[in-house]
Amino acid sequence: MKTEHLEERVNDYIKSIEIVIQKKIFWKQKTRTVLLKTLNNIVTQYNIGWQVQELNWIQSNEAINITFDSFPPELMEKTNLITSYQFIQGGSLVFSQSYSGDVHVIILFPIVEDTSIENSSIELGIFKPEEITEKMIIERVDEFLKQMIQWEVPNLKTKLGFQP
């Protein structure tokens, strides 16, 4: 059996690995830095109880997210007026690098006990690392905030338990 016809596939395979390596290098050298800088600037400028987290798992995959960690300080006194009020932590905008080097952008909603987890996230897209710019990050934070507002104060027709 002759294997000459495999040469094109072997070359394509090598090129595909090179593309993944280039994406991971770009993430490490540029994307990660612009994500951290932009998200940290947002957290500093708007103190509403969120923080930036860096995650690293499975040896090569990394993620950076902005997540609601605590209650907005300016509203603390108001919550003291309602003793039964409970802030639900969570809600995150995640920029996660995949095995292929692409970046998945996902919104994760807070997990509430005794509710379905089927609508616990929204995928905002998959991007090449070089597409992650300050402008793009700010646009995704804006979308994240819109989704969190909708989660906090849902439309009556989508309220838990509503049957049309």
Could you give the order of strands across the largest sheet? 1-2-3-4-5
Strand content: 15-25%
Q: Please provide the count of β strands.
A: 5
Oligomer: single chain
Instruction: Note the run of SSEs as H and E.
Output: HEEHEEEH
Structural class: alpha+beta
Number of individual domains: 1
What does this structure look like?
- There is one protein chain.
- By secondary structure, the protein is α+β, with helices and mostly antiparallel strands.
- The chain has one domain.
- Helices cover about 40% and strands about 20% of the residues.
- The chain has helices at about 5-45, 75-80, 135-150; strands spanning about 50-55, 60-70, 90-95, 105-110, 120-125.
- The chain starts with 6 loop residues before the first helix and ends in a 12-residue tail after the last helix.
- The mean pLDDT is about 85.
Which labels suit this protein?
164 residues, alpha+beta, 5 strands, elongated
Structure summarized in a few sentences:
The chain is an alpha+beta fold and 164 residues long. It is 38% helix and 21% strand. A five-stranded antiparallel beta sheet has the order 1-2-3-4-5.
